[in-house]
Structures are given as C-alpha cells and as structure tokens.
Amino acid sequence: MRLPHPFTMVGQEELDKVYRPGQTDSLNAVELRALLRKGWGVITLSRVGFDPGGKHAVVYAQLIYCGLCGEGTYLYLSKETGAWHIVGRAGTWIS
Predict the structure, then answer these.
(1) In this structure, are residues 57 and 84 in contact, taking their beta carbons and an 8 Å threshold?
(2) Do 32 and 45 belong to one domain?
(3) Into how many domains does the chain fold?
(4) Is there a contact between 86 and 65 (Cβ–Cβ < 8 Å)?
(5) CA-closest candidate to residue 39, choices 16, 20, 18, 17
(6) Do 46 and 88 fall within a single domain?
(7) Of 19, 26, 34, 81, which has fewest CB within 10 angstroms of its CB?
(8) Residues 70 and 85 in one domain
(9) Do 59 and 44 form a contact (C-beta atoms < 8 A)?
(10) For residue 64, what are the domain limits?
(11) 46 shares its domain with 3
C-alpha cells in the first residue's frame, strides 16, 4: 500500500487495548499509544462489498486523530484498466 506517510497496520484487538476501558499495559499497547501520539491518526476500513460482476465496490473508511477529531466516509470504487479508483464519496460524519 502506498501512502504519503509511514504507517503501521494493526488489528482491532490491538486497538481495543488502547481505546477501551481497562486498557492493558502490554508492550504492544504501550508502543501503539506512543505511535498514535506522534502519528497522523488511525484509519479504519470496513470489509469491502462488491457488485455481482466484481467491477464496482464500496468500503467505509474513517480517520480519527487527536482522540476527538475525525470523519467517516463511504468510498465508491470502480475497477478500470485493472486498477481500483475512487469514483464517489459520501460523508457520514465529521468532528
């Protein structure tokens, strides 16, 4: 995946250790909290839904940064010349 900033992929289980009540102080949770403090935020992606022909898709994405700010958006994708492209967006919330 190409993004303009360095990133670390983590699973929901690790995020839960950072954000949920009763947070653990495991090494991974401590390291992840440190990364979040100096990072751009957390991007969460849903599972992808495809049309029957496999040429169109929708995915929900949200970006949360600084704990209180962020946005959620549905991204509509189309496969053109072998690559996926965003062809539409529908914002659901912003803070």
Answers:
(1) yes
(2) no
(3) 2
(4) no
(5) 18
(6) yes
(7) 81
(8) yes
(9) no
(10) 41-95
(11) no
Shared-domain flag, residues 89 and 62: yes
Identity (one letter) of the amino acid at 2? R
CA distance 57 to 34: 34
3-state per-residue secondary structure call for 4-60: CCCCCCCCHHHHHHHHCCCCCCCHHHHHHHHHHHCCCCEEEECCCEECCCCCEEEEE
**Are 19 and 65 in a shared domain?**
no
Note the pLDDT tens digit of each residue in 34-87.
Answer: 766 666 677 888 999 999 999 999 999 998 876 678 899 999 999 999 999 999
pTM of the model: 0.69
Rounded to whole angstroms, the Cα distance separating 15 from 46 reads 15
